[in-house]
Amino acid sequence: MVWQTRPIRLKPFDANDKQLLRVEIETPKRSRNKFAFDPDDHIFELKKVLPSGMTFPYDFGFVPSTIADDGDLSTCWF
Known about the structure:
The chain has strands at 24-27, 33-38, 43-49, 60-63, 74-77. It is an all-beta fold. The strands form two sheets. Strands 1-4-5 form a three-stranded antiparallel β-sheet, with no helix packed on it. It is globular and about 45 Å long.
């Protein structure tokens, strides 16, 4: 079975809305590729590829401008 990713049309983002939490998705659900954000270069880098037949079960990402106790960006799962 081949998974097809389709773009989702979202409502415009309101930067003044205090009810929204902005997150960056690093590794999309059903992907074999694990990406990581490099804050020094401001790019996403390929960190590893899962073996054939394995995929990530969730979207993995982070909340920008936050730092967790371990010094990394605060991680989110969706």
